[in-house]
User: What shape does this take?
Amino acid sequence: MKKEDLDFFKNLLTERLTELLSHADSTVTGMTKPKENFADPTDRASHEADRSFELRIRDREHKLIKKIRNALERIENGNFGVCETCDEEISIQRLKARPVTTQCIDCKTREEDMEKALGI
Assistant: This one.
């Protein structure tokens, strides 16, 4: 992969990581506020549902943060953009769509087909 492509992906991933980490900080700050007392049980249930939804989103973001850090590590190690299954190059189009990917589209498709067949 060309150096300018690697620089593009490094900047893209670094910006996304910074954005996700700032969301995590705001969630922690929001969760440490004093508990609100709701007289109406419906308001309390709505508030708890909102918190639960936000925590699920943050959990997904936490997993994405790990993937981004792994992708940045692969850039530094010189194996970014190489499929971990077949050792072929991953297309730039696929990396632009999903920069944290570790598999080319053919290997990922085969893996998903196998999971579907096995019912995973």
User: Anything to note?
Assistant: The two ends are 34 Å apart (CA to CA). Helices lie at 3-31, 41-77, 92-97, 105-118. Residues 41-77 form the longest helix (37 residues).
